[in-house]
Request: fold
Amino acid sequence: MNDPFLRRYFIAIAGNIGAGKTTLAQRLAQQLGWRCELEPVINNPYLADFYADMSRWSFHLQVYFLSKRFESQLGIERHHQSCVQDRTIYEDAEIFARTLHARGFMSERDWENYRSLFDAMTDQLKRPDLIIYLKSDVPSLLRRIELRGREYERSIDPDYLAQLNDAYESWCGAPGGALNIATIDTGRGLGISQEEVMAEALHLLKTKLQIELPFKHA
Reply:
């Protein structure tokens, strides 16, 4: 087993809008004494405009997220402390930008330009040691989105969430992928509690990365 205090780890939490990424990232970081790198949502100057007019603002929004995520990951790599990241740069391209392009909200020209930027950036980055994907059905996503009450998210199309889910399933299930991805199904049955999600995440760290946790967990 590896001691989490002797080696620097980089873990990322992936998932659709409203999947519970931020909650898990914060809880893991607090439990392990690691840094938590949150998604740059609050001060995003394009987000509200994007939900009002996806075709007009999709490219601007995705490039903004790409640049911020790149800066964030460079900061993670420069830092000497283990870190949990809330959403990855890989999701920006493989899930969100790809889905917007498939739905006709991003032109072929913009998509190709975006992919060139993404490829150039990710060639310089270290991949996460483990990505934990929080899988969730659309009704569960919509409930969580409603509960957190962000005004600009009220108009999210359920079909858009469903297409994002499909993209996640394709991405996570791709054979021979270069990323180490493990899935926690948060929507099975009536949904599982935050404590159960946390316990499964800690179990994944122990089994996938051979991390010797300094405490007992369920």
Q: What stands out?
A: The chain has a mean pLDDT of 89.
